[in-house]
UniProtKB/TrEMBL annotation:
Key words, A-Z: Cytoplasm, Metal-binding, NAD, Transferase, Zinc
Residues annotated for Zn(2+) binding in this entry: 127, 130, 155, 158
Name of the protein in its database record: NAD-dependent protein deacylase
Broad class of enzyme this protein falls into: transferase
Superkingdom of the source species: Bacteria
Gene from which the chain derives: cobB
Family: Belongs to the sirtuin family. Class III subfamily.
Length: 253
């Protein structure tokens, strides 16, 4: 792959890099994205039937079963070269902040630390009624099929149903994660946005904030959107190919 010298220099000289990821970074691990035309999760099932408090109230075991199926996919999956390149990059630059919209743990399993999860985590359920988290982790999922109903476990404190620890439509993002993410976007000199369609707000504002605060922005996406021009680059390629190649070009030799 060929890279603009200006981009390579920006990466080599950056003091603070923000990496901002979406579902596309896990696509090569076999985890479906949300909006890809053929196999996007939301193209098969409208999110309002599964990813809202109203949906959970109406049919908790449908919603819990669907998230157990997603846990199964994540448990079976392995981090891919994109997750690994991001973890490696943290050791190559003075400061790196990793912000993800993903609810999987593939960044952590690739070796990234202190990942900011803007949309929550599959492995951090909490009580739908009292909000408290269980004392022990969920057992490994038992291979449910998509669409199978699974009764949510009861909260050990109040007996209410556990709900997935993810952000649903209409809910606020976790305040700490959000403020850390915006703070990093304001401070960084390079933001690398990987595998996100950039249509879900407020997360989608993060690269825009970095760009307005004069950072360079790089998009890694086989289908990149339109660019502003100045201080903005795109690599129209799969993340698992583009990110290792970028690190090689910038830092090898
Ligand atoms: P989307 O499904 O909206 O977008 C995935 C993006 O990844 C698309 O732009 C694809 O072109 C790109 N892509 C696909 N394969 C790729 C690859 N191998 N390498 C790089 N890019 C690739 O997913 P998100 O932008 O993450 O929120 O969606 C944002 C939010 O919408 C999600 O966090 C979720 C969803 O509703 C909640 O559930 C709160």
């Amino acid at each position: 792959m060929m890279f603009a010298e200006e981009l390579l220099d920006t990466l080599r000289q950056a003091r603070h890099v923000v990496v901002f990821t979406g579902a596309g970074v896990s696509a090569e691990s076999g985890i479906p994205t949300f909006r890809d035309r053929l196999d996007g999760l939301w193209s098969r099932l409208p999110p309002a039937t599964l990813a809202t408090t109203a949906a959970f109230r109406a049919d908790p075991s449908l919603v819990w079963g669907w998230y157990q199926w997603r846990r199964t996919l994540v448990h079976r999956a392995q981090p891919n070269p994109a997750h690994r390149a991001i973890a490696e990059l943290a050791g190559m630059v003075p400061q790196l902040t990793l912000i993800t919209q993903n609810v999987d743990d593939l960044h952590e399993r690739a070796g990234s630390q202190d990942v900011i999860h803007l949309h929550g985590q599959l492995e951090r359920p909490r009580c739908f009624t009292c909000g408290r988290e269980p004392g022990s982790p969920l057992p490994a999922p038992d291979e449910p099929q998509a669409g199978r109903h699974v009764i949510p476990p009861a909260c050990e404190h109040c007996g209410g149903p556990l709900r997935p620890g993810v952000v649903w439509f209409g809910e606020s993002l976790p305040a700490d994660a959000l403020s850390q993410a915006f703070h990093a976007a304001e401070q960084c000199d390079l933001l690398i946005s990987v595998g996100t369609s950039g249509v879900v707000y407020p997360a989608a504002e993060i690269p825009q904030v970095a760009w307005r605060m004069r950072a360079t922005v790089l998009h890694v996406n086989p289908q990149p959107g339109p660019l502003h021009g100045e201080r903005e680059f795109a690599l129209a390629s799969a993340a698992g190919v583009a990110l290792p190649a970028l690190l090689d070009a910038a830092f090898a030799g």
